[in-house]
Specification:
Layout lengths: L2 H12 L7 H8 L3 H17 L6 E2 L5 E2 L6 H9 L3 H4 L3 H14 L6 H8 L3 H16 L4 E6 L3 E6 L1 H18 L5 H9 L6 H15 L1 E3 L3 H14 L18 H11 L5 H13 L6 E3 L2 H19 L7 H12 L1 H4 L16 H11 L1 H7 L5 H20 L5 E6 L3 H14 L3 E7 L13 E4 L10 E3 L6 H15 L9 H5 L5 H16 L7 H5 L14 H14 L5 H11 L1
Parallel strand pairs: 7-8, 7-9, 9-10
Antiparallel strand pairs: 1-2, 3-4, 5-6
C-alpha cells in the first residue's frame, strides 16, 4: 500500500463518522477519479487480508464502509506493516537516506541501507546519485565516499541541524500524521522524545507566558528542539548557571525540565544560532487577550456593516474564533474542507469576499498573512453562526462519552459549552452506552473509540485541539443545515420542556386534528408547500425576517436570493 492509499485510510480511521467524497480527494491530491478508485482498491486489498469488508463509493460519491470496519484492528495492523507491505516511493527512500546521513556522524554502508529498505544494492546506488545532487546544491555540505566501506556527510553542526529540520518538516507535514513512514523514520533513528510531546510542552510554555508565534516559525522551532534532544550527544558540558537566558532560551530549558533531559551548552548554542539564522524571534509576540477579543469583534463588525449581518453579536462565534486565533499554531497546517454551503447560504460568495476584504484587520494584529486553510476554518465558523441565527431555534443535542472517569467527560463538556452552540444533554461512561436513547441525540462526542452507531460520532482528545475543533465545527455545520431528530416530532421536542399532562393534551389535539381530515387549501395554501412555512419566536429585524422566510423557497429554487434582497431594497 503506497503513501496516498494509507493517507486515505488513516483519514477515515481518524474520524469514521465523516463523509469523505471523490470530489474532496480529487481536489486534495489533484488526481482523477480513476486514480482515486485504484487507491481505494489498494486499500481494499489490505482490508481483505484482515477479513474486513471493502470500502465503496455510493451514488453520491461518498466513501462508505461496512459494519465490520474495526478501527482498532485496522490501526494495529497498519502499525505492524513492514517496508515490504508499504511500497516506498523513490522520494521516500531518498529522504530516508538523507536523514540518516545527516543524523549519524559515521560511515553508513550501502548494504545497510539496502537491508533497511528491502531493496537491492543497485537501487541504493541509484538513490545515492540523487542524494549527491541534493548535497552538491547545498552550501557547506559534502557527501564523502569511502571505497569499500560506505558514505558519510561532512558539514558544520548548524548546517546539519538546519537540513534535518527542513526534512523533518517535510516528513511531519507532507506525510500522513502517525502514518507508517513517520513511524518507520522515528524507529530507525531511535527517537526517544516524540514531536507531539515536545510540541505540547512548548505550547504549555507559550500559554503560561502569553506568547504567540506566527506563520511556520513555531514548527521550525519545535523541530529544532526535536532534533537537538533526540540526536546522539557527544559532550556533557552543562549550561553555566551565570549565563543570561531570554524568554525563548527558556523554552528549551522548560522542555528539557519536562522531559527530564539535561540541556548541554552546545545544544543551547545551536538553538540560538538556528533562531538567529531564521529570525525566529521576529515572529514572536506577547498576546493581550482583551486586545485580541477587540480585534476579532472589530473584524466581525466590519463584515456586519458590509453585509447587514449580526455576526459581532454572536458570543459563541467570537469565543470560537478567539480560541482558533489564539492557538493558531495548532491549526494552520490542518487540511480544512468546507462543506457544500452555497446551497444553504446563497450569499456565501459575498461573505467570502467580505472576509477576504477585512481579514487584514486580524493579520495586522498577528503580524503575518493567514493561509488558505486558516481562512477556510474561519468561514466554517461564520457559516455555522449564520445558520444558527437563521434556521434554528434549538441547539443540536449531544452526549459526551468518556472512559470510566466522569471527570474527563465533565471537562470535555465544559469546553464544548464554552466554544459551541450545542446542548449537552448527558455525560456517559462508555460502559453505560447501551442505555443511551439514540432517538434523542443528534451527535456523540467521545474521548474513546466507539462502535458504529446510528448517529454521528466524533472522537476527540480530552483537551480539545484544533483538529478536534474543526471536526466538531464541520459536524455542527452538517447538523445546522438539516432537520434535527428532535424537530421531526413536535411532541418529542416538547417532552423535555413541558409537564407530562400538557404534552399529552397537545398530542391528543394533534391526533384529533389528523383524524378530522384535510380541508381544501386556500389559494396561498396551494401556492406554498407546507415545508416553506416556519415558526420562529426569536427577535429579528424585518430585513432578517424576509431573508429567513425566503430560505426554504431559495432551497427549492422557487426564487433566488437576489429576489429577497430586492424586496428589502424596494421597501428601504
Amino acid at each position: 500500500m503506497k503513501k496516498r492509499s494509507e493517507e486515505i485510510l488513516q483519514s477515515l480511521l481518524a474520524n469514521p463518522s465523516q463523509k469523505l467524497t471523490i470530489i474532496q480527494f480529487k481536489k486534495k491530491y489533484k488526481i482523477g477519479e480513476r486514480t482515486i478508485r485504484n487507491d481505494i482498491s489498494e486499500v481494499n486489498d489490505f482490508l481483505r487480508k484482515l477479513h474486513i469488508s471493502d470500502l465503496y463509493f455510493d451514488a453520491e460519491g461518498k466513501l462508505n464502509y461496512g459494519p465490520d470496519f474495526d478501527v482498532k484492528k485496522i490501526s494495529a495492523h497498519l502499525s505492524q506493516m513492514s517496508v515490504y507491505d508499504y511500497k516506498l516511493s523513490k522520494e521516500e527512500r531518498q529522504i530516508y537516506i538523507i536523514v540518516h546521513l545527516l543524523w549519524e556522524k559515521r560511515i553508513i554502508t550501502m548494504q545497510s541501507f539496502a537491508d533497511d529498505l528491502m531493496v537491492s544494492r543497485i537501487t541504493i546506488l541509484n538513490d545515492i546519485e540523487k542524494v549527491k545532487d541534493v548535497f552538491q546544491n547545498t552550501e557547506d555540505v559534502q557527501l564523502i565516499s569511502d571505497p569499500g566501506r560506505g558514505v558519510f556527510v561532512q558539514c558544520s553542526d548548524l548546517t546539519r541541524l538546519d537540513m534535518l529540520v527542513r526534512y523533518f518538516h517535510e516528513i511531519q507535514f507532507q506525510f500522513v500524521k502517525n502514518g507508517f513512514y513517520q513511524n518507520m523514520i522515528a524507529e530507525s533513528l531511535q527517537i526517544e522524545y516524540p514531536f507531539s510531546v515536545i510540541l505540547a510542552h512548548v505550547q504549555d510554555y507559550l500559554e503560561i507566558n502569553n506568547l504567540m508565534f506566527g506563520d511556520d516559525s513555531l514548527y521550525d522551532l519545535v523541530l529544532c528542539l526535536y532534533v537537538l534532544y533526540n540526536r546522539p550527544k557527544s559532550e556533557v558540558e552543562s549550561i553555566n548557571i551565570n549565563i543570561t537566558l531570554n524568554e525563548i532560551d527558556n523554552i528549551m530549558m522548560y522542555v528539557g525540565y519536562k522531559i527530564n533531559c539535561v540541556v548541554q551548552m552546545q545544544m543551547l548554542v545551536l538553538f540560538r544560532n538556528f533562531r538567529k539564522k531564521h529570525a525566529i524571534e521576529s515572529y514572536v509576540r506577547s498576546l493581550d487577550q482583551i486586545e485580541l477579543y477587540e480585534v476579532i469583534t472589530h473584524f466581525l463588525t466590519k463584515i456586519d456593516q458590509q453585509l447587514q449581518t449580526s455576526l459581532s453579536q454572536d458570543p459563541k462565534l467570537i469565543d470560537s474564533l478567539f480560541m482558533h486565533i489564539k492557538n493558531i499554531r495548532n491549526w494552520g497546517d490542518l487540511d480544512v474542507d468546507i462543506p457544500d454551503v452555497q446551497q444553504y447560504i446563497p450569499e456565501y460568495q459575498m461573505i467570502e469576499q467580505a472576509v477576504s476584504a477585512h481579514i487584514p484587520i486580524v493579520e495586522k494584529y498577528l503580524g503575518y498573512t493567514m493561509t488558505e486553510n486558516m481562512l477556510h476554518s474561519i468561514m466554517i465558523h461564520i457559516c455555522v453562526s449564520l445558520l444558527r441565527s437563521r434556521n434554528r431555534s434549538r441547539a443540536p443535542s449531544v452526549i459526551v462519552v468518556c472512559p470510566g472517569s466522569m471527570a474527563t467527560g465533565r471537562y470535555v463538556e465544559a469546553q464544548i459549552r464554552n466554544y459551541f452552540d450545542l446542548n449537552v444533554i448527558q455525560v456517559l461512561p462508555v460502559k453505560e452506552l447501551d442505555h443511551m436513547d439514540e432517538s434523542r441525540v443528534d451527535c456523540i462526542i467521545s474521548t474513546v473509540q466507539l462502535p458504529k452507531l446510528s448517529v454521528p460520532v466524533i472522537q476527540v482528545h480530552p483537551v480539545l485541539d484544533m483538529e478536534d475543533m474543526n471536526h466538531i465545527q464541520s459536524q455542527l455545520f452538517t447538523l445546522q443545515k438539516q432537520p434535527l431528530l428532535k424537530k421531526q416530532n413536535v411532541v418529542d421536542r416538547l417532552q423535555d420542556e413541558l409537564p407530562a399532562d400538557l404534552v399529552q393534551q397537545i398530542n391528543e389535539l394533534i391526533q384529533s386534528y389528523k383524524k378530522s381530515g384535510k380541508k381544501e387549501k386556500s389559494a396561498i395554501g396551494q401556492l406554498l408547500e407546507r415545508d416553506c412555512l416556519q415558526i420562529d419566536d426569536e427577535d429579528h429585524t424585518w430585513q432578517d425576517g424576509i431573508r429567513k422566510a425566503a430560505q426554504p423557497m431559495i432551497h427549492k429554487q422557487m426564487i433566488t436570493a437576489e429576489f429577497a434582497e430586492q424586496a428589502i431594497a424596494n421597501v428601504e
